[in-house]
Amino acid sequence: MKQLRTYVLLASIAVLMMATSGFAADWSEASINLGYTGVSSDDSLNKTAEYESMDSSIGGGLELDVRQNGVGIELEGQYTDEEESEGSARFDIKRVLRAKYNYQKFIHRLRHDLLFEDKPHLSATAGTPGYGSFEPSINAGGEHDIYDGIIAANAVPLLTEAGTVGLEGLQTATFNDLDQGRDYMIERRKHEASAKLQLPAFPYLVPEVKFSHEEKHGWQQTTLMTGQCTPCHTVAVGQEIDQTTEEVSIGATFKMAGLTASYFHTEREFDNRSDDYAHEGRVDNDYYYDDIAKPYYDRLLFENESQEIGITADIEKKMDTVKLRYDAAGATTLYGSYVSADTKNNYNDLEYDSDTLFFSASNRSIAGLRLKAYAKQYEIDSDDLYVDMTSYTADTEIVFGADTIPVSDFNYNRPSSASRDVFETGLDASYVLGAGTMLTGAYTYKVVDRDNGNYKEYDSSLRDEAYLDDEETTYNTFELGISSRPMSSVNLRAKYTYEHADTPFSFSNGLGYNDLNQYGWTQLMDSDPDPLDMTTNSPFYEVLRSWNRTTSGSNVAENHHQFKASGTWTPNDIFSLSVNGQYTFEENDEAYNDWENNSWNAGVSIFMMPTEKLTFSAGYDYQYGKTTSKYATALYVGCFSESMGEQIASVYDNVDYDTTAQVLYLSTTYQATNKLTLSGDLTLTKAEASADNPNFGDNIYYENYVDYVLSGMSEEDYLAYLDANDLPYTQTIMMSYLDYSGSDDYSDLDYETLDLTLGAEYRFNSALTLAVSGFYRWVEDGEAYLGDDYDGELYLVNTSVSYRF
Predict the structure, then answer these.
(1) 530-534 contacts at long range (C-beta below 8 A, 24 or more positions apart)
(2) 37, 88, 337, 341: most buried by Cβ count inside 10 Å?
(3) pLDDT digits (tens, 9 = 90+) for 645-695
(4) Who wins on pLDDT, 419 or 601?
(5) Nearest alpha carbon to residue 574 among 605, 606, 609
(6) What is the pLDDT of residues 626-645, one digit of tens each?
């Protein structure tokens, strides 16, 4: 493949040399421009200058179109500064050899989430387990810095190994940005080239080669969870981006009479050339799980070791595509295609194969009637992944509650959920009723058969149950539309779509919602006689594979309804009014999480030309969406350390998520004189999103007898110990913290933006033009998300002089 790329590049150079060899042109047209861009900003650049360079610079551009003896050259290029430029070239040698090339370079600024680092933190000390976050120091002595973290809730009491009551807690949540001060940005470059050859001696066959090369360089923020079993501690680090994607496609197209056939072979290669991460002033590809957080014990499986925290795998893809089309008699067109693709993940040596077969037939032999039928069959076969947890830990056993479990219990094959067989067929029809009215209709039948299998063939220590059976989903989709022109100045369109999915994709046996509902929640672990008295702990896999989890959840619509309508009124050449609307309703009653989605969209736009020299256009668009889904949180017996119990239950509540977006735009042009043109554009946007606070009920308290089990005491001795040390018995009562007040703050979004552009263009003559434009952008972030906000302003002034010859 490397040699093939070299040949493509050499061929492109040869074409350029042939086409640009000196000659006097029969016909040519060209223009050049030179200008200056001044830039200024205030506050955040994340939204105000997401794709703009912030360097004031002198730039220029070129356009060239030359023809001579059947040979043509077209060149275009625009240079703004080192971060932004684009160009293209077109070559045509007597229509025998045609080639083109495109280049683009730009930047993309990314968000740097502060993770509350600018907010007051509770103090953290190494001697108080459960407070703050524990990160390694950058010094060589191996000491540890204690980074202050946000405490989301209070820690809970427990009996420590030293025989004293201390505080630890699942309720202790910390957030830390370990790469503060870095501006995250990605620079992107893309080259695209293609060439076609059509020999006069055999014009029916046209070979073609295509090539593309894309690069991404820079840094982006990556977050990871360092807690043992829940996202209790979240840290953010900087991830270096150094990636290339190359694609080469070679093939040919054959055309003769009514037959068109083509074949192309494509190879794509993604190369990730850096796994470096920046945190605490260091750059490497590991995150160190340190022993200062020893209360986590061995559940991390990363005991005092450095582990890779993220990997972007190198990918290779090979694809073969065959297409056939035949225009037969009787206004009939037959079309077929076959695509075979093989994708390989070079990191874990997994392959993903797919085969797609498509056929369609369309006919227009009956006046006013168009019919089209099609069928598609595709198969995806993805390798299963065997996970070997022993490669992550030096310990052969890990501690869960009072049980010691071999790590090998977690070594098993994970079947891919991507593997499936899909069959789809459908019929489209349209019929013209009369002058100006047409009916359209369509029906689609689709079957998706997922080849998931079970997670594991369980041994004696795990329950032998199927938790991800094969699933088959059937889709039936109906569409009905009408377009009409009741009068010459009015055009109306409407369309209704209904889709029903029988057994849509879901998280099988992921919920315990309707299983064993006691004390206001769904109990997932057995307890005798009172679920509030948990006398034993159990390995967490017995909760994840609990025999009480028999209910599925899904956010895929079982029923989908959508109605669209639009209309345009154009009474004359100087006025036009258009309106449009759309309503979508989706629901899934089959799953037990009561998922539902409603969305509305409406808009209006007008165009006016009061005089031949003045035009106005304006529009307003409104969007609203509301999604209702069942949220869940877990109830635990305890918290960190060996006294930690497992998830014994789940609580649920329906939560609404609302989104609103509004856009208003105005645009005008004015021909002040024959030489002077003025223009202006204004766009205002407002976007809001919010989620309800889930109401999981009152906090739940229950007695944790696990502490005295681990201490080796009897219950009587344990109570005597508490009494002798003047410790209240309530200190052994564990709490599931269910008050989520304020959690809606983490989902609230409120953005307002204003974009204003004013421009003037003065033509001295047909060749020389002066253009000046100013751009202003204002962004207001009304709900700073996780301590960061997008407030900012951007000012741009562009001046250019262009000469056409």
Answers:
(1) 531/648, 531/649, 531/702, 532/701, 532/702, 532/703, 533/702, 533/703, 533/705, 534/637, 534/645, 534/648, 534/702, 534/703, 534/704, 534/705, 534/706
(2) 37
(3) 455 667 778 899 999 999 999 999 999 999 999 999 999 999 999 998 888
(4) 601
(5) 609
(6) 999 888 776 655 443 333 44
Q: What residue has token string 């090369």?
A: 213
- pLDDT tens for residues 539-586? 445 555 555 666 777 888 999 999 999 999 999 999 999 999 999 999
DSSP-derived 3-state class of residue 5: helix
Kindly report the number of other CB atoms within 10 A of residue 510's CB atom.
20
* Backbone angles phi and psi of 716, in degrees to 5: -65, -40
Query: Which of 1-10, 274-283, 322-331, 526-535 holds the top average pLDDT?
Result: 322-331
HSE-up (13 A, CA, CB side) for residue 557: 18
Task: Provide the 3-class DSSP secondary structure of residue 18.
Answer: helix
The angle subtended at Cα 720 by Cα 700 and Cα 708, nearest 5°, is: 55
Find where tokens 């260091």 sit. 282
Strand runs labelled E in 226-272: 233-256, 259-272
Averaged pLDDT for residues 300-310 = 53
Give the residue among 246, 180, 224, 214 at the shortest CA–CA distance from 108.
Answer: 214
**Angle at Cα 182 formed by Cα 178 and Cα 184, nearest 5°?**
110
CB–CB of 424/446 below 8 Å? Answer: yes
